[in-house]
């Protein structure tokens, strides 16, 4: 099927967010598990491309928006390659680090899996039966980590350590996520697709790019690309189930080429009602159980909470956004000195930090650009930061213009 370019109304619908807030596969209580950079294996397509009726980009976006799949089970493979070292062992080496054991006293706390999903390849089993019953299991060799939401009960269990984390959902915790930030942390093809479509605007090209088979299902491929140069994002491909409208696969490729930065997709999916026993859980004998309410009362869970507006404002003075769409750059002032560098007289420490990034100069002065395959950040010697999914040259240009 030939690609079909979106019309003006498509971008308007994207901006106004014409999406149905459907409850999806993964329990929202587990969304704290995923990293903000999301660690969600390529090549899930079957043999041959299915012959499906023609559809426009506008119609396909509406199909995604109307999707309301609430009962299913399946297996998702997720992979991320930001060009960073594997972070799985970093957490333990830091004594818990971000959202780890130090935070709540339990390795089963969903936030303790944050860094684990930030890199590498992982297999997830997911199941959902409406708004009140969801389960996600992260499979890792002989061990398994699960989060189960059943009615007003939310359990997380880590078989490797035989620890469980329990909380009540009487205050709507499952809808808000364990940390109250579920909507900010997409973890599935559906949620990733929603975030991209919600953020799309006139700087975006949206086309239908043929068909594919994913997990044995016929699907349309929605292709989303930046219209202008300068972004590190090459393209985003979303495979959409032709019958249900559910996104089955999400792939983000960088402008620099090579393997996908983020690739998440079903390898198996079944839209029948899961067995009720899927969502049953009782801690095995000898399990160490941590109550979420008790951990919060002791002040342990508050350590990893995002800072409030006032506190954030003190640390990042004058937060601003330069440009628009895919080429937008966040700019803020740390209010202090920049990163130590060899040129600033920092000696061995400066040489080490310089080795991690690229030293750059311009009208703004000098600084260091730290890069991944998707997000780059320029930290100037006088403490200003420019960051975005843009090239190094774009960051330097922005810093020069701001000067």
Would you give an account of this structure?
The chain is of the alpha+beta class. The protein has two domains: 218 residues, outer membrane lipoprotein receptor (LolB), chain A (Clam); 94 residues, no CATH class. 19% of the residues lie in helices and 33% in strands. The strands form two sheets. Strands 1-8-9-10-11-12-2-3-4-5-6-7-13 form a 13-stranded mixed β-sheet. The chain has a six-stranded antiparallel β-sheet with strand order 14-15-19-18-17-16. The N terminus is likely disordered.
Low-confidence sequence ranges: 1-47, 86-102, 171-185, 301-317
**What value does the average pLDDT take?**
75
> β content, as a range?
25-35%
What would CATH call the architecture of the largest domain? Clam
CATH top level assignment of the largest domain: Mainly Beta
Indicate the structural class: alpha+beta
With strands numbered from the N-terminus, the spatial order across the biggest sheet is: 1-8-9-10-11-12-2-3-4-5-6-7-13
Distinct helical segment count: 10
Any idea of the CATH topology of the largest domain?
outer membrane lipoprotein receptor (LolB), chain A
Order of helices and strands: EHHEHHEEEEEHHEEEEEEHHEEHEEEEH
Biggest sheet descriptor: 13 strands, mixed
